[in-house]
Design brief:
About 75% of the residues lie in helices and about 0% in strands. By secondary structure, it is mainly α. It starts with a helix and ends with a helix.
């Protein structure tokens, strides 16, 4: 049980990393549908829009951020792939696949710990497995 307590900080770091990643996607308007963005643009052209946020102003000044925001448009990417899944459903499914991969890897590490009395690999490697599964 003491070994499981050693892995707890790594699990918390993984949750924090996923939370920061999800917050970054929200701030980049990945979940905002194209038609909403188009309406916002039209409203801003006519003077009805609310002031642009910091990220939108930065994206207007830095072409790299604008390209990044356009490339991370998950609605567009799913439409290109021909999937009818919502962006939230897609990200949730990918997140759980990554979480499952990390859990299976930690389970294998725990079996090695029970057999040998030491961790075969550092438990932090499970984070790398989760990131690799998420990226795939």
């Amino acid at each position: 049980m003491a070994e499981a307590a050693q892995a707890l900080p790594f699990a918390l770091i993984a949750l924090l990393a996923v939370g920061v990643w999800a917050l970054g996607l929200l701030r980049l308007d990945v979940f905002t549908p194209d038609d909403v963005r188009a309406w916002r643009r039209l409203a801003s052209l006519r003077g009805y829009a609310t002031p642009a946020g910091r990220l939108e102003r930065a994206a207007d000044r830095v072409p790299f951020l604008r390209r990044l925001q356009d490339e991370l448009d998950l609605n567009r990417q799913l439409a290109i792939a021909g999937w009818s899944e919502s962006p939230q459903g897609f990200l949730l499914r990918v997140f759980f696949v990554a979480l499952l991969a990390a859990a299976l890897f930690v389970g294998l590490l725990a079996v090695g710990l029970l057999e040998n009395g030491v961790w075969p690999l550092p438990p932090a490697v499970a984070l790398l497995v989760a990131v690799a599964a998420f990226a795939l």
